[in-house]
């Protein structure tokens, strides 16, 4: 392993916010927090108020900020205004939603109430006049949207979207574009000729989407990303981080001119303008292996400041040969991009690359680790563990799946390929140590490839009759021993299975719903069947039945769906209009959940770092603060 310690760089001072973060479901005063636990610097968000037609009136939904909850706990209320007139008789304390059935249209605002004193109004509601927010796409014939990364690009407290657009027939170069939620197009970066599909080298990798990836670019597999969006320098405005190469053209017309098409770079792009600020070369360790794929993400490796994580992966030898994996992490101080450490995963370690990474604090010391399926790299760039007996898989989940156990748990599926059968189809494990807690079994008499090669799995709390989360896979024949729905404590509880794509919080309870294609399904454990509760028309999903993004982007703690129109001319953002008496601080300020937005690859479910399910009574307060330099139109004490 090679570790480079960067020269310390100046950071903006941050406003102190008293907070505490304890395991389990209870809150506690900030004095109870371990004094050495760092406080993370997170985005300064506005109220996120949205107004959506509902019934004979308008449904309103807004954020309880994580920074507010950290300071005040439940001692904060809200008043709702229409055209300057207050609608609610008494302050709202048990929800962050309101149904307005008064006549006429109007401008809605929300004011927080703390210690009986009303604070300033936040910005006016984002209007979902058609039942959604429509974002027109810039003209690009034959292109579809693959991924979307939220980030506050201009520092006003509202997220913008950075999207990757790919040529459907692979004849055009990849495009990266930025849009406001109100529909304005901000900029376009053309990733250039190296984003076109290249002939594979010795690695014979699956092509990579959305950005240049070691001379292998997009294609039908769409496994990789090599783009992320986050505020690294703490000025309140997010940067865009991506791989670039010869011919990449930025929004101001400037180009990357490299000596060789094989030269690759990590570029920092100004989120507001789409212009390059600085770049560093990608290491050439794997050049002789041929094209390599990769992933980008963000991790708080020191527990306080965000760092960029870049992963390169290639497969050596015959098609789908052994994995070679390299990680680099980077800090950006507003001027310089500096390497924190570099780590090449040992070839004999048993670590095998999955199709995405997760960055999350697995040992509860405040600093994030990098999980890549069957292994974890620690925050200092060393190998933490490899799951015994586990190999390559397509998807894995990490969350507090069992609130009775300390720490986080994981659920991963296993892929059998080219005649090499995995030891087991799936495993449920301790995410802090890698210890397998439960393991699926292959049938003795497999009748189909799906019995041995498990491509998908999901974990969610879908059955309130059993404690903690459930998990299941895409195995077709549910009579087989590894198939069905399993509970983290009670084992197999059902032989029928729900859809297996994504977990989503959509309706008013704390149980999970399921997102597949563009529709939301509610699972009924009594009948073992699912029913659609939301199915918009005029929109389509993309690769692997996924939309470009879903997550808590606006409104209360529940999640939105971003989908592309069937004619590929616009994006539509949908939010729930179901009332709820559950009040939780915005998921966008939960550390693990927010970092889930920074990784793409094979899109997978996003989770909080605390248990959020039917047994949740009160969530722990986050240990977070915002940059002092961030400017928001909402003002909070």
In a few lines, what is going on in this structure?
With 637 residues, the chain is an all-beta fold. The chain is 2% helix and 34% strand. The chain has two helices and 43 strands.
Low-pLDDT residue intervals, each spanning 5 or more residues:
1-35, 199-221, 631-637
Calculate the mean pLDDT score and round it: 88
Give the amount of beta strand, in percent: 25-35%
**Radius of gyration, rounded?**
23 Å
Task: Characterize the structure shown.
It is built from two helices and 43 strands. The strands form eleven sheets. Strands 10, 39, 40, 41 and 42 form a five-stranded antiparallel β-sheet that branches. A four-stranded mixed β-sheet has the order 6-3-2-9, with no helix packed on it. A four-stranded antiparallel β-sheet has the order 5-4-7-8, with no helix packed on it. Helices cover 2% and strands 34% of the residues. The model is unreliable at 1-35, 199-221 and 631-637 (pLDDT under 50).
Distinctive features:
disordered N terminus, 2 helices, disordered C terminus, mainly beta, 5-stranded antiparallel beta sheet, 4-stranded mixed beta sheet, 637 residues
Chain-wise SSE layout:
Layout: E1 40-41, E2 50-54, E3 57-61, H1 66-72, E4 77-82, E5 85-86, E6 97-100, E7 108-114, E8 117-121, E9 126-127, E10 133-136, E11 143-151, E12 160-167, E13 175-180, E14 185-190, E15 227-230, E16 239-245, E17 264-270, E18 276-281, E19 293-299, E20 307-316, E21 322-332, E22 337-344, E23 358-360, E24 369-371, E25 375-377, E26 383-386, E27 396-399, E28 409-413, E29 426-430, E30 436-439, E31 457-460, E32 470-473, E33 485-487, E34 491-494, E35 502-504, E36 513-516, E37 519-524, E38 529-534, E39 539-540, E40 549-551, E41 560-565, E42 570-574, H2 591-596, E43 624-625
Parallel strand pairs: 1-43, 2-9
Antiparallel strand pairs: 2-3, 3-6, 4-5, 4-7, 7-8, 10-42, 11-12, 12-13, 13-14, 15-16, 16-17, 17-18, 19-20, 20-21, 21-22, 23-24, 24-25, 25-26, 27-28, 28-29, 29-30, 31-32, 32-33, 33-34, 35-36, 36-37, 37-38, 39-41, 40-41, 41-42
């Amino acid at each position: 392993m090679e570790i480079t310690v960067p020269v310390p760089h100046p950071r903006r001072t941050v406003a102190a916010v008293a907070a505490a973060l304890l395991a389990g479901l209870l809150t506690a005063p900030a004095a109870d927090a371990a004094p050495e636990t760092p406080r993370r610097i997170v985005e300064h968000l506005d109220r996120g108020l949205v107004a959506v037609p509902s019934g004979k009136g308008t449904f309103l939904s807004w954020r309880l900020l994580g920074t507010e909850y950290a300071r005040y706990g439940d001692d904060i209320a809200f008043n709702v205004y229409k055209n300057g007139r207050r609608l609610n008789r008494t302050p709202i304390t048990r929800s962050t939603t309101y149904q307005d059935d008064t006549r006429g249209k109007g401008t809605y605002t929300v004011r927080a109430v703390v210690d009986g004193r009303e604070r300033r109004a936040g910005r006016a509601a984002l209007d979902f006049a058609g039942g959604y927010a429509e974002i027109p796409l810039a003209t690009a014939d034959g292109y579809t949207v693959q991924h979307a990364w939220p980030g506050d690009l201009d520092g006003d407290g509202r997220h913008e979207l950075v999207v990757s657009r790919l040529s459907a027939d692979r004849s055009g170069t990849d495009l990266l574009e930025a849009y406001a939620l109100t529909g304005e197009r901000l900029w376009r970066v053309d990733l250039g000729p190296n984003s076109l599909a290249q002939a594979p080298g010795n690695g014979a990798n699956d092509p990579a989407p959305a950005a240049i990836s070691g001379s292998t670019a997009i294609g039908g597999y769409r496994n990789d990303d090599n783009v992320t969006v986050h505020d690294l320098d703490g000025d309140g405005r997010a940067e865009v981080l991506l791989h670039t190469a010869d011919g990449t053209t930025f929004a101001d017309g400037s180009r990357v001119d490299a000596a060789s098409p094989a030269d690759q770079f990590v570029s920092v792009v100004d989120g507001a303008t789409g212009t390059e600020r600085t770049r560093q070369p990608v290491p050439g360790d794997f050049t002789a292996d041929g094209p390599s794929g990769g992933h980008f993400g963000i991790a708080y490796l020191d527990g306080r400041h965000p760092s960029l994580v870049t992963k390169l992966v290639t497969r050596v030898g015959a098609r789908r040969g052994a994995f070679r994996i390299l990680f680099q992490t980077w800090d950006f101080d507003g001027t310089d991009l500096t390497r924190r450490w570099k780590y090449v995963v040992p070839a004999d370690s048993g670590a095998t690359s999955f199709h995405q990474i997760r960055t999350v604090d697995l040992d509860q010391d405040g600093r994030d680790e990098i999980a890549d399926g069957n292994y974890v790299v620690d925050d200092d760039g060393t190998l933490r563990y490899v799951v015994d007996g586990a190999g390559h898989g397509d998807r894995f989940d990490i969350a507090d799946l069992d609130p009775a156990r300390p720490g986080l748990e994981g659920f991963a599926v296993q892929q059998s390929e080219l005649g090499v059968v995995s030891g087991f189809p799936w495993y449920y494990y301790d995410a802090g140590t890698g210890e397998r807690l439960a393991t699926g079994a292959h049938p003795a008499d497999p009748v189909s490839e799906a019995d041995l090669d498990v491509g998908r799995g999901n974990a969610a709390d879908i059955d309130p009759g059993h404690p903690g989360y459930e998990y299941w896979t895409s195995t077709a024949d549910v009579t087989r021993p590894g198939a069905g729905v399993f509970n983290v404590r009670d084992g197999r509880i059902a032989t029928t299975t729900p859809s297996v794509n994504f977990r989503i919080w959509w309706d008013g309870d704390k149980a999970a719903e399921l997102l597949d294609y563009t529709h939301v399904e509610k699972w009924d454990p009594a009948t073992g069947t699912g029913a659609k509760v939301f199915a918009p028309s005029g929109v389509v999903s993309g690769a692997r039945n996924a939309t470009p993004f879903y997550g808590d982007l606006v409104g209360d703690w529940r999640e939105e769906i971003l989908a592309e129109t069937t004619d590929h001319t616009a994006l539509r953002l949908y939010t729930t209009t179901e009332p709820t008496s559950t009040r939780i601080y915005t998921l966008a300020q939960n550390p693990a959940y927010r970092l889930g937005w920074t990784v793409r690859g094979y899109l997978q479910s996003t989770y909080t770092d605390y248990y959020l399910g039917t047994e949740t009574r009160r969530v722990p307060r986050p240990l977070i603060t915002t940059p002092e330099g961030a400017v928001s139109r909402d003002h909070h004490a």
